[in-house]
Amino acid sequence: MTITLRPSQALRLWQQVNLSEVRDAAPDLTTRQAAILLTVYLDPPPHTVRGLAARLNVTKPVITRALDSMGALKLVSRHRDQLDKRNVLIRRTVEGALYVERLGDVIIAKARELPI
Prior knowledge:
Blueprint: H1 7-23, H2 31-42, E1 47-48, H3 49-56, H4 60-72, E2 76-80, E3 88-92, H5 94-112
Antiparallel strand pairs: 1-3, 2-3
């Protein structure tokens, strides 16, 4: 299914989703944190700090700081890779899955409100 939006509609959708998010009791995520969260939940695992840093084109410390905040919110968890102790695996959590599902629902609802 293809959805065609004009740039102004796409920006309006982004605005409406962001307004909904900041008005809601859910945690406010930075754009970087949202990108990490969506990567972890939409792309197949495994996910590592090194892999996320490469995917987002940022340093490992940048990913680590974002994961610290996201871990405190229980959106992801981190564990040492038992096969390669140098790697830190990023895992999904129930709380994170619920957050992503709710975000998807918000996007759908706001898209339906767009003027044609």
